[in-house]
Amino acid sequence: MSKDKYIIDIIGTQCIEDEIQDSVTVTTTGDYRVASTGNKFIRYKEYDEENPSVFKNTIIKISDRQVTITRSGEYASQLILECNKRHQCHYHTPVGSLIIGVFTKVMDISLNERGGSIDVAYTLDFDSETVSENTFKINIREN
Fold first, then answer.
1. What superfamily in CATH does domain 6-142 come from?
2. CB within 10 Å: which end of the chain, N or C, has fewer?
3. Residue-wise pLDDT tens digits, 49-85
4. pTM above the 0.85 mark?
5. Where are the domains of the chain?
6. Where are the alpha helices (DSSP H) in 12-88?
């Protein structure tokens, strides 16, 4: 399969104290494949808006019950999402590394060999205190 054969649409929101603080919509191209194990992988690059020569590689691994988002680059992170479970995840920032709690409330995965969608709702907590409620939807289709 050739690289960047798929169009990836990502819509995300972050709510703090019931108010939308941040909303992001991204459309990019990338790679999508279904492994022999049944796991699905989405790969794409996230480019810095101010400096397009700087980017992060993002790999999303999807299994039947879990979505893992791994970003590499200057500030690497890994988010583990599993419905009705809390995971502690590492998040690197310019001021150092943090461990954040991630509790997934909703996960709807509808993917096949040609693409599909992922809908997730989750909370982030720091020191066991909820800091935000978040959602994202990823649609992937052949280019």
1. Calycin beta-barrel core domain (2.40.128.20)
2. N
3. 888 888 889 999 999 899 999 999 878 899 999 999 9
4. yes
5. 6-142
6. none
